[in-house]
Every structure is written in C-alpha cells, then in structure tokens.
From TrEMBL:
Domain RNA polymerase sigma-70 region: start-end pairs: 30-95
GO MF annotation terms: DNA binding; sigma factor activity
Record-level GO BP terms: DNA-templated transcription initiation
Organism: Bacteroides xylanisolvens
Alphabetical UniProt keywords: Sigma factor, Transcription, Transcription regulation
Name of protein: RNA polymerase sigma-70 factor
Superkingdom of origin organism: Bacteria
RNA polymerase sigma factor 70 region 4 type domain: residues covered: 126-177
Pfam families: Sigma70_r2, Sigma70_r4_2
Keyword Zinc: no
Protein family membership: Belongs to the sigma-70 factor family. ECF subfamily.
Gene3D superfamilies in the cross-refs: 1.10.1740.10, Winged helix-like DNA-binding domain superfamily/Winged helix DNA-binding domain (1.10.10.10)
Length: 195
C-alpha cells in the first residue's frame, strides 16, 4: 500500500468514525463521493433511473439510520456495493412476484393474428393461465413470466434472479408440467399462443 492509498484509507476511517458519532458533514461527504457510482450501477441493472434513484437513496438512508453499527475498519465502498446489490435484487424480486405486474402482463398480451378461434376462447384461456400462474411458487412464477411475457433468455433470467441456468430450465419445465396438468382442454390453445 503506497502513501496515497494509506492516506485515503485513513481519511475514510476518520469519516466513518465521525459518521458513527452522528456528524452530518461526514455523511454528506460519503454521499457525494459514492452516490454517482452506485446510482449508475443500479440504473445499469434496472434500466430505470427513477427506481435506481429511490434504491440508492434508500441505501444511504439505511447507512445513516444504522451508522452506530458501522465498523471503522471496513471498506465503506464495498459495504455500499453489497447493500445496493441486495436492494436491486429485492426490487426485482418484488416487481416480478406481484400479482399486479402479472395481471398487467397478461392483459397486454395480444392474440396472434394467425389464430382464428373466437376471442372468447382466448379470454377464457387467459383467465385459466392466470389462475395456474397464481398457484405457482414465487420463484417459478417469476421465471415463467420473465421467460414467456418478458421474452428474456434463460441466461438473462438467471442473471436477474441470481440463480443458475439449470435452475431456470427446471422451473420452466415444472411450470409447463403444471399447465399441462391443470389446463385440460385449454392446453392445446396454450401451446399455440404462449409457447
């Protein structure tokens, strides 16, 4: 560690020490130093500047609230990174596990023009599919909806949810088996419209 690294590490320890004691100036210094980096990180993950801003502001709010528990010897940058990553994944998990988002996704699906069955069949199918999706475990529901309604690849889903590609494939396989068991006569339509 050279002299510059040593002095910046010492400065950060002093900032953390003062922050622990409730010094607002130290908090503002850390905020202005690290906010742009982690806002860019969250925005890159979410592709949504508003959500990224909310998440990183929430991270810094948590740092202030729990300032007395901070360890002066830790790397504050690494700590903010861990908090930010956790908040981003929690946000994504919540977004894709909510009934509202799933319902909106179902409602915006258009019936393929090449299919000539009556609209009533599609409406009933959509309701039946929604009913099956609602009974799925949260992770399987997320994987299936990201795959079929958001058109994400298995790799993108794995990255988004922090799971392996094999786990993604298994969830899709189990979801399709559930549809086959529960949709009955609607399954042929389901295959034509959703797969």
């Amino acid at each position: 560690m050279n002299k510059t690294d040593l002095s910046s590490a010492t400065e950060e320890q002093l900032l953390l020490q003062r922050l622990r004691e409730g010094d607002m100036g130290s908090y503002e210094t850390l905020f202005h130093r690290y906010y742009p980096t982690f806002f860019a990180f969250a925005k890159g993950m979410l592709k949504d500047a508003g959500a990224a801003e909310d998440i990183i502001q929430n991270v810094f709010m948590k740092i202030w609230i729990h300032r007395e528990a901070l360890d002066e010897t830790m790397s504050i940058k690494n700590y903010i990174y861990v908090l930010s990553k956790r908040e981003v994944f929690n946000y994504l998990r919540a977004k894709y596990n909510t009934h509202v988002v799933l319902t909106e996704d179902m409602m915006t699906l258009e019936r393929p023009s090449s299919i000539d069955e009556p609209t009533t069949d599609y409406r009933e199918l959509r309701e039946a599919v929604q009913s099956v999706i609602n009974t799925m475990p949260p992770k399987r529901r997320s994987v299936f909806c990201l795959s079929r309604f958001k058109s994400l690849t298995n790799q993108e889903i794995a990255d988004k949810l922090g799971i392996s590609i094999r786990t993604v494939e298994k969830h899709i396989e189990l979801a399709l088996r559930t549809f086959k068991e529960q949709l009955g006569s609607f399954f042929a339509l389901f295959v034509g419209w959703f797969l």
